[in-house]
């Protein structure tokens, strides 16, 4: 049996059964992420197709709405949370104990919540300026793309809470090890999607 | 085989049942489309006839109990593989070349000659409105064109997406609100044909037909001049056309003697297209063709 | 706030029939009554025969891939009955539709919209998903799917979509813009009613369910193969299932997204596809067909898999051109993602774009043609038995190439300009979907039915059904080609040209034959259940099969294989039989771990149906209730313990040895006695003639 059962972080033989058992689930989740990427891809394409004066329908455009300071901070929050999520994975791999894992997860959740708070504040600002998703086709596609990512982050936060509860109740069992691996994939994936959004939507929008 | 299939298609096409389809063409585009159909069918037959003949033969010859040759281990043959992949590939190369050439040649955006007659087409629920900006004529549900002269249609709709089709002349193209598509066509001879919308757009869909007439020069002049005395098509009467109903419903609502109106606003087509781009929302009661449309409430 | 949202007493077809008695409203009320009578009689029968307990224990809560597969197929057959009935009503209406017709235009458009949606998403998809579910783990030597509970959830989501479509027959009206639901026609401005909402909330769960199924199939095939089952040893059906799974993973998200975007337009006033404020309906067409085109190959590839198995088994030969078939399957799967634009050559893009997509479309004809020739070469110099699957295969050969011909014709933008949106197109896609997908699935059901239930299907009734399907198809759909060439548009509630009438009459007669075919299909199942003792094949190999699934008892035990087989070649079971070493005794049995029963799928199904229904009627409290329930169910699952059951080795050994003993006491039959009661599922070799 080779060392690497699936792409990404493997637990290694010292984790016994968990190392083998996670193969199916982690691989399956990779496949799901590829599918989810298509979902985002469709929305990216819609956004690109809607980045025209016609689709903006005389409404506010990127220059009037985007705040690079805020989105830059969101990016920083999310990148940092990816780092702490990675620390949680390392704590798992090197058996640093449930407390350490839970701590890194909690920090990840806080950073994620910070990202979400900033994003919601941006949305509120935009709506205050009259830039609701009902204003133009371009705004509809903007809210859909960024909002879908935000929904994913929200789901991730719920997921962290569930993981923390499970670790608290049951400790780091084989099953929870697998779930931690999967969650890490999910979180890094969202980071990657955000980099896409930040570049394609915000940076290009102001370029 | 090829000759046979060509013959079959021509025989079928000659029957009066096809008088409205493109198998009885009235113009050069539909003629080419028919020719293309025939040659594509004929060449594809090379790949299909072996199946149609071979399958019954094999099933009969190698049925169990007949004692014909039995080769249970036969699972590969290089010459056979080359034929199986090669023949269809060759056919597709030939067809692909033809496709390339005919798609360019029959591109609906390509004018069929210099200085084509300009006709603007607005799709409404459930009728077509034809505007002749150079002649100041409008016509509801009837398209009259001079024979032998290229015609360029510019199409849009003032409701949902529709598809404009006159099989005997040139096939179809979509028309969409706020957008303009082109269709170039020409009639070789005097004649009549039927056109339609083919994109389902509600309960009146089946009524949305077009009477197409290709007429000679004298007929064309007379038709254009006759419109001079017809009621005017301005924004008020246009608003009436936006109501749901067939061409004849509209003609009787506007009290028209025939399909013709006098086009008093030469810019109407562009107004209709740009009405979707003015940055203002269109309320359901101001959207022509919508069930809640109430032109009286406008502006 | 209204407690029941937009619901009131006037939304049922019964109130329509009372307020406005006419043929039109009576047809609608009759259909609604059929749904209610059908549902009530199922409930009564279940109670009468005391089947609630087995239904609950063995089916609704089972995570066994075979039972989930059977439930998919039962769902598909129920929906097929409705879809065929709707088709027949439409053909009947159109035959009388010169300047009118018995049904109203609105009613007719609901019919073609539900017919299309049902046939693609709730007949063809569940048939394919069901068959893959049943067959793939058996063919690759796995105990179950990779994710058995997710499998149940997929079924639950699909069933929720189907349930909502059924509800739309009784409460309210369905969408009227066809199965593609193109906006802006389906937007709030032009379709203010509940119709498009029914469509959206049927399609979204079905799309999600299929995407999850795709993940499940792909992971199962990648990761759960028996030792030695390398990719190039996998049976062809498994190969096609793999390609279909990959396509489901990538092609289902677009339709989910486009439907949800349409929902945002309708519910929240977004402007994705609206006429005003920068909406763009062309985006919808693109996204929808990014799903829609791969979808046809999602459906037809597994049918190709069935033909590969059927052709080899019933001609008692090795499959010809395995590598070619695998290559062709993969090529089709890949190219099918690059052709979506041919669904709207007429949207006004440049000639060069049309050429690129036209040629890509034609290229698919090459691997498809190769497949057809490969199956012919498989039959060549075989010993062909004309069983029911082979009758379907014959019908497929002859009719599918006609569909292929018209496909190549339609791939030419210049011709498409003339026949797009006409009955020619309708004839073409029925021509590929009925002889391609439906015949394939019916043949597959006939072929694998004994594996699942332990008895064969009646050959006489099966052959009658197959014959009627073939004849019915020809009579119904070949005339539509002619009508299309005459210029008759699809979706026409009425017409004015009497020249259409002869072909319309022929097609209507064909629809009656198809109704007969449907009846014969159901009769086959009923007759076979009655004669199940006579048809029993408990030893598990009724057709002298070649692949792993036939090396198990029929019905297959829940754990599929007493010990996971070791595979050393393609057609492993056939080679063992040739070498005289099948059914080797097992020295050591081990405990087997299987998923425990769970109500997860059922809960998801109920909560999703509830959410969808509440969304359609704007009953917001119910939306919140059901959706929260859905989320909590999923979160609660994370805390579930004790999700597995263990079958003791002794039990496995007892059942397996009993089966081996029965085989040892049976002499087997040659293929001459295949369709007689002597066939108990043990194959004896023919005297060797080479």
UniProtKB/TrEMBL annotation, chain A:
Entry-linked Pfam families: COX3
Record membrane topology: Multi-pass membrane protein
Principal subcellular localisation of the protein: membrane
Keyword field contains Transmembrane: yes
InterPro entries: Cyt_c/ubiquinol_Oxase_su3, Cyt_c_oxidase-like_su3, Cyt_c_oxidase_su3-like_sf, Cyt_c_oxidase_su3_a-hlx
Heme-copper oxidase subunit III family profile domain residues: 27-206
PROSITE patterns membership: COX3
Compartmental location: Cell membrane
Annotated keywords: Cell membrane, Membrane, Transmembrane, Transmembrane helix
Annotated TM spans: 27-49, 75-94, 101-118, 138-168, 180-203
Protein family membership: Belongs to the cytochrome c oxidase subunit 3 family.
Protein name (record): Cytochrome c oxidase subunit 3
UniProtKB/TrEMBL annotation, chain B:
Transmembrane segments: 35-59, 80-100
SUPFAM superfamilies: Cupredoxins, Cytochrome c oxidase subunit II-like, transmembrane region
UniProt cross-references to Pfam families, sorted A to Z: COX2
Keyword tags: Cell membrane, Electron transport, Membrane, Signal, Transmembrane, Transmembrane helix, Transport
Superkingdom, natural source: Bacteria
Region called Disordered, residue ranges: 278-299
Domain Cytochrome oxidase subunit II copper A binding span(s) in chain numbering: 114-226
Keyword Membrane attached: yes
Location of the protein in the cell: Cell membrane
Signal peptide: 1-19
Family membership noted in the UniProt record: Belongs to the cytochrome c oxidase subunit 2 family.
Protein name: Cytochrome c oxidase subunit II
Species the sequence originates in: Paracoccus maritimus
Automatic annotation (TrEMBL), chain C:
InterPro entries (alphabetical): Cyt_c_oxase-like_su1_dom (IPR023616), Cyt_c_oxase-like_su1_sf (IPR036927), Cyt_C_Oxase_1 (IPR000883)
TM region(s), chain numbering: 26-49, 70-90, 118-141, 153-174, 198-222, 234-252, 287-307, 319-345, 351-370, 390-411, 423-449, 461-485, 505-527, 598-615
Swiss-Prot/TrEMBL keywords: Copper, Electron transport, Heme, Iron, Membrane, Metal-binding, Respiratory chain, Transmembrane, Transmembrane helix, Transport
Lineage: superkingdom: Bacteria
Entry keyword ATP-binding: no
Chain ranges of the Cytochrome oxidase subunit I profile domain: 50-568
Keyword Nucleotidyltransferase assigned: no
PROSITE patterns from the UniProt entry: COX1
Gene3D superfamilies: Cytochrome c oxidase-like, subunit I domain (1.20.210.10)
PANTHER family: CYTOCHROME BO(3) UBIQUINOL OXIDASE SUBUNIT 1, CYTOCHROME C OXIDASE SUBUNIT 1
Family: Belongs to the heme-copper respiratory oxidase family.
Name used for this protein in its record: Cbb3-type cytochrome c oxidase subunit I
């Amino acid at each position: 049996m080779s060392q690497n059962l699936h792409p990404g972080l493997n637990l290694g033989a010292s984790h016994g059964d968990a190392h083998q058992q996670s193969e199916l689930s982690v691989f399956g989740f990779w496949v799901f992420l590829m599918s989810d990427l298509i979902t985002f891809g469709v929305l990216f394409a819609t956004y690109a197709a809607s980045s025209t004066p016609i689709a903006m329908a005389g409404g506010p455009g990127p220059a009037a709405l985007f705040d690079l300071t805020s989105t830059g901070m969101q990016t920083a929050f999310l990148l940092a949370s990816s780092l702490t999520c990675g620390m949680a994975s390392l704590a798992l791999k090197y058996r640093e104990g449930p407390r350490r894992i839970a701590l890194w997860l909690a920090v990840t959740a806080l950073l994620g919540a910070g990202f979400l708070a900033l994003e919601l504040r941006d949305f509120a600002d935009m709506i205050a300026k009259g830039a609701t998703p009902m204003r133009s086709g371009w705004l509809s596609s903007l809210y859909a793309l960024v909002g879908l990512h935000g929904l994913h982050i929200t789901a991730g936060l719920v997921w962290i809470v569930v993981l923390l509860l499970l670790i608290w109740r049951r400790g780091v069992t084989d099953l929870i090890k697998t779930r931690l691996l999967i969650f890490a994939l999910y979180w890094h994936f969202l980071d990657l999607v955000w980099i896409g959004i930040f570049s394609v939507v915000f940076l290009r929008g102001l370029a | 085989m090829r000759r046979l299939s060509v013959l079959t298609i021509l025989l079928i096409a000659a029957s009066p049942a096809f008088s409205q389809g493109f198998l009885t063409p009235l113009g050069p585009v539909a003629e080419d489309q028919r020719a293309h159909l025939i040659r594509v069918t004929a060449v594809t037959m090379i790949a299909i006839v072996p199946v149609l003949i071979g399958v019954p033969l094999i099933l009969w010859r190698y049925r169990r109990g007949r004692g014909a040759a039995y080769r249970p281990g036969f699972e590969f043959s290089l010459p056979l593989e080359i034929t199986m992949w090669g023949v269809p590939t060759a056919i597709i190369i030939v067809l692909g070349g033809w496709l390339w050439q005919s798609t360019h040649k029959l591109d609906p955006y390509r004018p069929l000659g210099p200085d084509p007659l300009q006709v603007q087409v607005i799709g409404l629920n459930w009728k077509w409105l034809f505007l002749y900006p150079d002649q100041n004529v409008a016509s509801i549900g009837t398209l009259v064109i001079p024979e032998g002269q290229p015609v360029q249609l510019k199409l849009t709709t003032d409701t949902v997406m529709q598809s404009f089709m006159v099989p005997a002349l040139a096939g179809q193209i979509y028309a969409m609100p706020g957008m303009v598509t082109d269709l170039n066509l020409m009639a070789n001879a005097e004649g009549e044909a039927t056109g339609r919308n083919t994109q389902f757009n509600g309960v009146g869909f089946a009524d949305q037909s077009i009477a197409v007439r290709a007429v000679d020069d004298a007929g064309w002049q007379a038709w254009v001049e006759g419109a001079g005395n017809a009621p005017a098509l301005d924004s008020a009467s246009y608003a009436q056309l936006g109501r749901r109903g067939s061409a004849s419903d509209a003609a009787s609502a506007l009290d028209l003697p025939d399909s013709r109106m006098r086009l008093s606003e030469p810019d109407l087509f562009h107004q209709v297209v740009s009405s979707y781009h003015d940055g203002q929302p269109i309320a359901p009661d101001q959207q022509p063709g919508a069930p809640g449309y109430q032109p009286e409430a406008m502006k | 706030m209204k407690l029941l949202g937009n619901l009131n007493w006037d939304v049922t077809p019964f109130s329509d029939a009372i307020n406005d008695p006419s043929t039109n409203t009576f047809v609608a009320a009759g259909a609604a009554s059929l749904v209610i009578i059908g549902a009530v009689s199922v409930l009564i029968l279940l109670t009468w025969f005391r089947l609630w307990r087995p239904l609950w224990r063995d089916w609704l809560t089972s995570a066994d891939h075979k039972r989930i597969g059977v439930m998919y197929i039962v769902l598909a057959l129920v929906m097929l009955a409705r879809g065929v009935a709707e088709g027949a009503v439409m053909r009947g209406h159109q035959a009388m539709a010169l300047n009118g017709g018995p049904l109203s235009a609105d009613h007719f458009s609901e019919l073609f919209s539900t017919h299309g949606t049902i046939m693609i998403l709730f007949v063809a998809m569940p048939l394919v998903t069901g068959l893959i579910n049943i067959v793939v783990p058996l063919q690759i030597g796995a105990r179950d799917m990779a994710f058995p509970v997710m499998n149940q959830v997929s079924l639950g989501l699909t069933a929720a979509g189907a349930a909502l479509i059924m509800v739309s027959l009784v409460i309210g009206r369905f969408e009227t813009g066809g199965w593609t639901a193109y906006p802006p026609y389906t937007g709030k401005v032009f379709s203010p009613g509940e119709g498009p909402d029914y469509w959206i909330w049927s399609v979204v769960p079905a799309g999600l369910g299929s995407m999850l199924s795709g993940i499940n199939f792909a992971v199962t095939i990648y990761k759960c193969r028996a030792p030695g089952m390398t990719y190039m040893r996998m049976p062809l059906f498994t190969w096609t299932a793999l390609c279909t799974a990959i396509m489901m993973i990538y092609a289902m998200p677009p339709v989910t997204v486009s439907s949800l975007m349409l929902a945002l337009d309708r519910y929240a006033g977004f402007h994705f596809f609206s006429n005003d404020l920068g909406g763009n309906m062309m985006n919808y067409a693109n996204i929808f067909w990014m799903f829609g085109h791969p979808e046809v190959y999602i459906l037809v590839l597994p049918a190709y898999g069935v033909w590969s198995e059927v052709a080899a088994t019933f001609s008692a030969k090795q499959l010809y051109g395995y590598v070619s078939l695998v290559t062709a399957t993969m090529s089709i799967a890949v190219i099918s993602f690059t052709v979506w634009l041919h669904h709207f050559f007429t949207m006004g893009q440049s000639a060069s774009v049309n050429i690129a997509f036209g040629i890509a479309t034609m290229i698919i004809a090459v691997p498809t043609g190769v497949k057809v020739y490969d199956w012919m070469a498989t039959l060549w110099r075989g010993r062909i038995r004309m069983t029911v699957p082979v009758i379907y295969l014959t019908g497929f050969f002859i009719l599918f190439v006609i569909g292929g011909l018209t496909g190549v014709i339609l791939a030419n933008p210049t011709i498409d300009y003339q026949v797009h949106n006409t009955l020619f197109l309708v004839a073409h896609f029925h021509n590929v979907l009925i002889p391609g997908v439906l015949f394939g699935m019916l043949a597959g059901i006939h072929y694998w039915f004994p594996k699942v239930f332990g008895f064969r299907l009646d050959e006489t009734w099966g052959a009658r059904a197959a014959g009627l399907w073939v004849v019915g198809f020809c009579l119904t759909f070949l005339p539509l080609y002619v009508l299309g060439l005459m210029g008759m548009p699809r979706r026409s509630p009425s017409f004015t040209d009497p020249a259409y009438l002869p072909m319309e009459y022929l097609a209507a007669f064909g629809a009656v034959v198809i109704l007969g075919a449907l009846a014969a299909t159901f009769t086959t199942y009923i007759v076979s259940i009655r004669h199940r003792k006579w048809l029993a094949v408990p030893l598990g190999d009724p057709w002298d099969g070649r692949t792993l699934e036939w090396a198990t008892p029929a019905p297959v035990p829940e754990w599929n294989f007493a010990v996971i087989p070791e595979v050393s070649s393609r057609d492993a079971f056939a080679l063992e039989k040739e070498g005289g070493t099948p059914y080797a005794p097992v020295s050591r049995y081990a405990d087997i771990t299987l998923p425990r029963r769970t109500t997860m799928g059922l809960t998801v199904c109920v909560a999703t149906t509830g959410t969808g229904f509440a969304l359609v009627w704007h009953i917001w409290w119910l939306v919140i209730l059901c959706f929260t329930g859905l989320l909590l169910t999923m979160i609660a699952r994370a805390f579930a313990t004790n999700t597995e059951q263990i079958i003791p080795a002794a039990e496995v050994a007892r059942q397996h040895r009993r089966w081996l003993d029965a085989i040892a006491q049976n002499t087997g039959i040659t293929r001459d006695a295949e369709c007689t009661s002597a066939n108990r599922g043990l194959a004896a070799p023919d005297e060797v003639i080479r």
